[in-house]
Amino acid sequence: MNRWIKTVSLCWIMAGTMVLHAEPLNCSGTVTDTEGVPLEGVKLRIMPVGHQDVTSDAQGHFTLSWDPSQWGPEDTTFCLVARHEERELGQVMPIEEDQTEANLQLQPGLSITGQIVDSDGQPIAQGQARVMLRVSNWGSGLSDATAQADDQGRFTIKALPVDQQYNITALAEGYGQAEKNTQTATSNHPMDLGTFTLPLADQSISGKVVDLDDKPVANARIYAYGDGQPDKHDIKTDAEGNFVIDQICSGRIRLHVNFFEPGQAQMYGSIESEDGATDVIITVSPQGTHQGFAPRSPKSLLGQSLPDLKDLDESLTEVNIEGHPLLLCFWDMQQRPARHSLIQLAQQTELLQQQGVKVIAIQTTSVEADALNAWLQKQQISFKSAMMTGDVDKTKFAWGIKALPWMVLTNQDHQVVAEGFPVRKLRENLAKVENNVEEP
Question: How far apart are CA 279 and CA 48, in angstroms?
Answer without folding.
Answer: 38
